[in-house]
Design goal:
The complex is a heterodimer of chains A (362) and B (285). Chain A has 362 residues and is α/β, with parallel strands linked by helices. Chain A folds into two domains: 232 residues, 3-Layer(aba) Sandwich (Rossmann fold), CATH 3.40.50; 116 residues, Rossmann fold, CATH 3.40.50. Chain A is 40% helix and 19% strand. With 285 residues, chain B is an alpha/beta fold. The chains are: A alpha/beta (362), B alpha/beta (285). At the A-B interface, helix 2 of A face helix 4 and strand 6 of B.
Chain lengths: 362, 285
């Protein structure tokens, strides 16, 4: 199939269907209501089910129930709606069920606005709901990559029996870009008999639950989760390196929409002789700690910068990754404003001066 | 102090509703009702959440609380409980009141705090551009239900009457005289009062138009006894294609008041608040 031009929100829906997700539960919220509209139209054509819930609380509990019943299931929402789903995320993680959730992040806190933001980083990677749990978090930067990540998200959720969260923003969800659905192959659903509530004929029944009144059992489960998250870090940590192979002085870290701006800024700066490149995390959890640390230990890297559309959230992970070996420069725009390449270029040029790098002279 | 005037409630916040929206009628009548009741803006608190209807709190010059979708029903009760001198009026859409906030609506009726809940019921989600709401007709084709809505619409009037909601009324945004009378009665009612205001959505709902309501609505007359719960329920449940306007049901259940500890009084205006509170706490030591 040739490439087709598709709006991000609709491509997310189509990718899920092609990944074998035939059940979608959601509640409208800007800027991603088009996912629900697309699914309501498309799912009946392929024998799937679409339900508009009465709230995000209900939608998230519906994916909890549907996942427990052993089917591939997805919901999509935007920041205020994801806060309402935080409770279910904790329960789905604790019940060890696979589910795919997309959060098209908008400016916050509170009702905020509807334009692009990365303010939900902490909520996505550090928890959001209560208790010690993690989502595997994917942060694609293009509509094509969103399609690929959605199609990979289902097998990943099943591999780890854990929710997979994709985060993007209104720029990607509302923009049309060429997509090729054949570029990625999804894996068929694994056998669900071990955990799904699919009946108990000729086998012990499965119970979906997450209550351990015996603290020893609860602690044992938490140790199991630690092992699960270590395995994610070892086997499913994804990132892209851009212009990092010719001994750059500076490494810029950015993800999602921001990484697109940074890519342009680096392209321009390199024309002027600045030696810098970008590490773009694709998984925000697991985070590419090891790769960043290795970069910080090379002889040529002298500085790190982080660009975000939030007050400084991912920068904490970058600082931890490099053990604060260097001061980390930071630039942000917030509340729905996407930084321009010009202001990122100006910031990075200034960082070269501040950190005493050779910059254009090199 | 001079009586409040319409001018007192005017502000210059730009209006973001579509031309012809039913919300304009509700806004005008709400201003009139507040003036008719002699309520100065500083004594009125309008509470709302998310949607087209909740924008109304920005278009009047009085206290406003614009909180979360459907949850403003809970917040508003708390505001009234701690500030009993305020007249608290909630403005929700059908999505906020009956969907996201359905649970809060149910418990507000039970609790019976003296607030008024006005639901702008246009049978559609306007803000997110035309998805089905809890009151969209079964079979109606809308954005996310291209083959028609499968679920039954909620019957919020019957629900409220069955739960002995202290005041249950319905009006129409385009019948200003009727809406003014109903709103004034609701605000005056000493307890939780609920008004479902039908309004056309001129952008996203081609079914429930001004002409549709003109054709199907009828006003309850003096033959209807609003203190007769069974009769009220029968009106709300009648499947005769006619839409009742008026006060369907009311009762005189005493409203929930803040617990008045002797000697505590109004917490906000109490000069020796810590000492008085300490006396209360001492009783539980």
């Amino acid at each position: 199939m040739p490439k087709i031009l598709m709006k991000g929100a609709e491509a997310i829906g189509e990718a899920a269907i092609r990944a074998g997700c035939l059940s979608y539960f959601g509640y409208p919220i800007t800027p991603q209501s088009e996912v629900g509209e697309y699914m309501s139209r498309r799912l009946p054509e392929v024998g799937g089910v679409f339900v508009q819930a009465e709230s995000e609380v209900a939608a998230s509990q519906m994916i909890y129930g549907a996942s427990g019943a052993g089917v591939r299931v997805m919901t999509t929402t935007s920041s205020p709606g994801f806060s309402l789903m935080a409770e279910a995320m904790s329960y789905i993680a604790a019940s060890e069920l696979p589910a795919v959730v997309v959060n098209i992040v908008r400016g916050g806190p509170g009702l905020g606005g509807i334009l692009p933001s990365q303010g939900d980083y902490f909520q996505a990677v550090k928890g959001g709901g209560h208790g010690d749990y993690r989502c595997l978090v994917l942060a694609p930067a293009t509509v094509q990559e969103f399609v690929e990540c959605v199609m990979k998200a289902f097998p990943l959720a099943e591999k780890y029996l854990n929710p997979v969260l994709l985060i993007g923003d209104g720029m990607i969800a509302q923009m049309m870009e060429p997509v090729d659905f054949d570029a990625v192959k999804t894996e068929p659903q694994r056998d669900v008999e071990a955990w799904a509530t699919t009946g108990c004929k000729d086998r012990p029944r499965n119970v979906v639950e997450c209550l351990w009144l015996d603290p020893k059992l609860c602690e044992d489960f938490n140790f199991e989760l630690i092992e699960k998250y270590k395995k994610m870090a070892a086997e499913d940590c994804y990132f892209e390196e851009y212009e990092l192979d010719d001994q750059p002085e500076m490494v810029v870290v950015a993800y999602g929409t921001t990484s697109r701006i940074v890519r342009t800024a680096i392209e321009e700066l390199r024309k002027d002789g600045y030696k810098l490149g970008m590490l773009r995390p694709i998984t925000l959890f697991p985070f590419p700690f090891d790769r960043l640390r290795a970069l910080s230990e090379t002889a040529h890297v002298k500085a790190f910068s982080v660009i975000e559309m939030s007050q400084g959230q991912m920068i904490e992970d970058v600082r931890w990754a490099i053990r604060d070996k260097f001061p980390v420069g930071f630039f942000c725009r917030m509340g729905g404003i996407v930084p321009s390449p010009e202001e990122v270029i100006d910031f990075l040029k200034q960082e070269f001066v501040t950190r005493g790098l050779k910059g254009a002279k090199s | 102090m001079a009586d409040p005037t319409l001018q007192d409630y005017k502000n210059d916040v730009p209006n973001a509703w579509c031309p012809g929206c039913g919300n304009f009628g509700i806004l005008q009548v709400l201003q009139k009702a507040l003036v008719t009741l002699g309520l100065p803006p500083e004594r009125v608190l309008l509470c709302s959440g998310i949607g087209q209807a909740p924008k109304i709190v920005h278009y009047l010059n009085c206290n406003a609380f614009d909180g979360l979708h459907g949850r403003e029903v809970a917040s508003a009760q708390a505001a009234k409980i701690v500030a009993d001198d305020l007249t608290v009026i909630i403005h929700s859409g059908d999505g906020g009141a009956y969907g996201e906030g359905g649970n809060h609506f149910l418990h507000a009726m039970r609790r019976n705090v003296d607030v008024t809940h006005v639901v702008h019921d246009n049978h559609i989600y306007g803000l997110t551009k035309g998805q089905a709401s809890p009151t969209t007709d079964q079979g109606q084709k809308v954005a996310v239900h291209p083959d028609g809505v499968a679920a039954l619409p909620m019957n919020p009037l019957a629900l409220a009457i069955s739960q002995s909601c202290p005041f249950v009324a319905q009006s129409l945004s385009s019948q200003a005289d009727h809406l003014l009378d109903v709103l004034c009665q609701a605000i005056r009612h000493p307890g939780f009062s609920y008004v479902n205001v039908l309004q056309p959505c001129v952008s996203w709902d081609p079914v429930h138009t001004y002409a549709y309501y003109q054709k199907h609505c009828y006003r309850l007359d003096t033959s209807h006894d609003p203190t007769d719960q069974a009769a009220a329920l029968a009106v709300a449940l009648a499947h005769d294609g006619r839409i009742p306007l008026g006060v369907l049901y009311r009762n005189d259940r005493p409203a929930l008041r803040p617990v008045s500890e002797p000697g505590v009084g109004d917490l906000r205006e109490c000069p020796d608040r810590p000492a008085r509170l300490a006396r209360v706490f001492d009783r539980y030591r």
